[in-house]
Design a protein that fits this description.
Elements (H helix, E strand, L loop, with lengths): L9 H11 L3 E5 L18 H13 L14 H14 L1 H12 L9 H8 L4 E4 L5 H8 L6 E3 L13 E4 L19 H7 L5 H12 L1 E5 L6 H19 L9 E6 L2 H4 L4 H21 L2 E6 L6 H10 L21
Parallel strand pairs: 1-2, 1-5, 2-4, 3-4, 5-6, 6-7
Helix pairs in contact: 2-3, 2-4, 3-4, 3-7, 5-6, 5-12, 8-9
């Protein structure tokens, strides 16, 4: 038995309508780029694994064992990344380049290709890698690319494009490298009040239907932006001057078919985190859409997308051609 949505699932029907309208902003988090170690040919390290690599390179050791509760706490990971950055900025940059840029091109996962074929109005990602950009280019779709910190034209998120809001490292082929947002100081600087990145978040949430995929809502910057969005929309709704559009969060949960491959403890943690996310979505005004994860390679998400739009037509595309926007030339 799986948790694939049925025609009776109202949230699923709403999500399907939005995605098929090509009027949504698809927000892609790092969950979709994560690969299972030690084979990173189909993805990149998880956030904790990236921080561990930085600690080893910059500080000579990992200051905590695998049982440290901070590996699941975004705020503690951000602080640990800052420790590594302060210990050796040159080695910090070297590790980032080695993992994301100076390695052979990672094969584009099928779930990315399918997201590209949905032809969303805009794509926004916190990922430093090129997987989403590659997926769009693989099917001949070009988008204006906007890369942190050059996000001055935040309103363009409502007009179309591809936005790397935490920076872009690129590949050995395109030789692009920007500032990234990973350590505490980098987050604090990027998310200062009235900075372009904050204005982009505000515009994205206030003016668009957003579909969050592979995104951790426990990330402090994401949660801060959503909390402020909730405050703004609640205040405007009181005087009837604002009609909020539905935005969605896709939440993968484990069923018994998946749990046999995991420890019961880990399965319980995953389930609890998914429930907490679902509760938070309800509080903030987002529509949660549940699906069966099936495995660590996003098979459940891919099946969900295929169920929503079995054969997206390239003829329906309205690609946005142009220069590289605010990105690096």
């Amino acid at each position: 038995m799986t948790m694939q949505p049925t025609k009776r699932d109202e949230s699923y029907l709403k999500l399907k309508e939005v995605l098929l309208s090509h009027d949504a902003v698809i927000f892609v988090g790092s969950g979709l780029s994560k690969a299972e170690p030690p084979d990173y040919r189909c993805g990149y390290p998880s956030w904790p694994d990236l921080i561990k690599a930085l600690c080893i390179a910059c500080m000579g050791c990992i200051p905590h064992d695998d049982n440290w509760n901070g590996w699941g706490d975004p705020e503690k990971l951000i602080e640990l990344a800052e420790d590594a950055r302060q210990a050796s900025r040159s080695k910090y940059d070297e590790v980032i380049r080695r993992i994301f840029c100076d390695t052979p091109k990672v094969a584009t996962p099928e779930v990315y290709r399918y997201l590209a074929r949905l032809n969303a109005k805009s794509y926004v990602t916190t990922n430093y890698d090129s997987l989403l950009r590659n997926a769009l280019e693989d099917i001949g779709v070009q988008r204006d690319v906007h890369v942190y910190p050059k996000l001055q034209h935040a309103s363009r998120v409502s007009a179309g494009g591809l936005f790397h809001i935490h920076g872009y490292v690129g590949t050995i082929d395109d030789n692009m490298y920007s500032e990234i947002v990973l350590s505490k100081e980098e987050f604090d600087m990027a998310y200062c009040e009235n900075r372009p990145l904050v204005r982009l978040w505000d515009t994205m949430l206030d003016e668009n239907c957003v579909v969050f995929i592979g995104t951790s809502l426990s990330d402090p910057s994401t949660r801060s932006m959503l909390d402020k969005y909730k405050e703004r929309s609640s205040a405007l709704s009181l005087n009837g001057s604002y009609r909020r559009r539905d935005s969605f969060v896709l939440i993968g949960m484990d069923e018994q078919t998946v749990e046999v491959a995991l420890s019961w403890r880990q399965a319980d943690i995953d389930r609890l985190n998914a429930r907490k996310t679902q509760e938070y979505c309800t509080q903030i005004g987002l529509v949660p859409v549940l699906y069966d994860k099936e495995d660590p390679n996003h098979s459940g998400l891919l099946h969900l997308l295929k169920e929503i739009a079995p054969r997206p037509s390239l003829k329906s595309f309205n690609p946005i051609f142009g220069n590289q926007g605010d990105g690096l030339q």
